[in-house]
């Protein structure tokens, strides 16, 4: 990373004494100023959650952590996700805009193509914060459609986070949310046990979704930023053993054995998307498999469907993240 110019540091200090602390990560005065406002307004929870303390020095402590590469969401304590506010804590993966995009698009697809009195069965594998089940439930319940959604994760910390997020967002969810959504421990790679556990909790699965660990060991070391490498949970990003594709055959098998009408999984980019597409096509289970693109036009979501669910192949219109959020 290039060194900061002394002139930049002096200019930042002239605006606010804490701005230079943010420059190593923000790189510009404008970005540092914006993050300082956010930290000053919303960062007290993050100060407690990251050991920053609640005394007079809490804001400086947060700025120092941010300058060392701490993710902003851990310091603020939350991340917007559709109409929801997802609580973020170290040890649990921060929800990404690409995940928000495909989840929102899927929810809209369901509302457009399924009968409004349907009760949709959804399973989210590697649920993390629970952001995908919670946002889908929000979208469907606001339109009067009922659902039964399971979120599965191997991490006890992630499951605690998902349950906290359900409680944190319950005003944006239906009155029956505690019956509609359930988070539980499960190993996606142990398909037999997973199927048995899911079968005891839901009758009929329409869609299996997953944002699994998909970054290879080489890509993790080469392509991720220091904020991701040093502070987010590697287990949620890169599979043990280094094979970034290892989860996708298991996700496909789980969807097949559950009788799911569709399977939807997030991937790293075009190369992995095409490998997963070929893997799922090769099973002969799905009538079709296609790839959705993200804001930048990159293939980031692979979808497979059975007969009658061809509508799910249509991905989001490719727009910029700024335009999409506005």
Automatic annotation (TrEMBL):
It is an enzyme of class 2 (transferase). GO terms for cellular component: mitochondrion. Its EC number is 2.1.1.297. Gene3D superfamilies: Vaccinia Virus protein VP39. Keywords: Methyltransferase, S-adenosyl-L-methionine, Transferase. GO terms for molecular function: nucleic acid binding; peptide chain release factor N(5)-glutamine methyltransferase activity. It catalyses: L-glutaminyl-[peptide chain release factor] + S-adenosyl-L-methionine = N(5)-methyl-L-glutaminyl-[peptide chain release factor] + S-adenosyl-L-homocysteine + H(+). One of its GO terms (biological process) is methylation. Residues 110-220 form the Methyltransferase small domain. It holds the Pfam family MTS. It comes from the Eukaryota. NCBIfam families: hemK_fam. This is peptide chain release factor N(5)-glutamine methyltransferase. It comes from Tuber aestivum.
């Amino acid at each position: 990373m290039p060194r900061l110019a002394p002139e930049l540091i002096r200019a930042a200090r002239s605006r606010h004494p804490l701005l230079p602390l943010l420059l190593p990560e923000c790189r510009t005065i404008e970005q540092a100023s914006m993050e300082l406002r956010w930290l000053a307004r919303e960062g007290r929870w993050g100060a407690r959650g990251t050991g920053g303390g609640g005394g007079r020095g809490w804001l400086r402590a947060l700025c120092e952590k941010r300058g060392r590469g701490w993710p902003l969401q851990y310091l603020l304590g939350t991340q917007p996700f559709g109409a929801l506010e997802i609580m973020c804590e170290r040890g649990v993966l921060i929800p990404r805009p690409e995940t928000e995009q495909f989840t929102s698009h899927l929810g809209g697809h369901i509302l457009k193509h399924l009968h409004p009195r349907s009760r949709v069965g959804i399973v989210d594998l590697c649920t993390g914060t629970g952001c995908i089940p919670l946002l889908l439930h929000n979208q469907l319940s606001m339109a009067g459609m009922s659902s039964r959604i399971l979120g599965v994760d191997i991490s006890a910390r992630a499951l605690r986070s998902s349950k906290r997020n359900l409680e944190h967002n319950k005003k944006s969810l239906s009155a029956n949310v505690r019956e509609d959504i359930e988070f539980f421990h499960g190993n996606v790679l142990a398909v037999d046990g997973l199927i048995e556990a899911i079968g005891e909790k839901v009758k009929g699965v329409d869609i299996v979704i997953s944002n699994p660990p998909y970054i290879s060991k080489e890509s993790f070391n080469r392509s991720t930023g220091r904020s991701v490498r040093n502070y987010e949970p590697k287990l949620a990003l890169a599979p043990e053993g280094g094979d970034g594709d290892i989860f996708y055959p298991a996700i496909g098998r789980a969807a097949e054995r559950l009788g799911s009408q569709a399977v939807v999984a997030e991937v790293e980019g075009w190369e992995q998307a095409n490998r997963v597409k070929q893997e799922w096509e090769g099973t002969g289970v799905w009538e079709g498999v296609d790839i959705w693109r993200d804001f930048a036009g990159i293939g980031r979501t692979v979808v497979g469907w059975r007969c009658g669910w061809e509508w799910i192949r249509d991905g989001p219109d490719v727009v910029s993240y700024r335009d999409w959020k506005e």
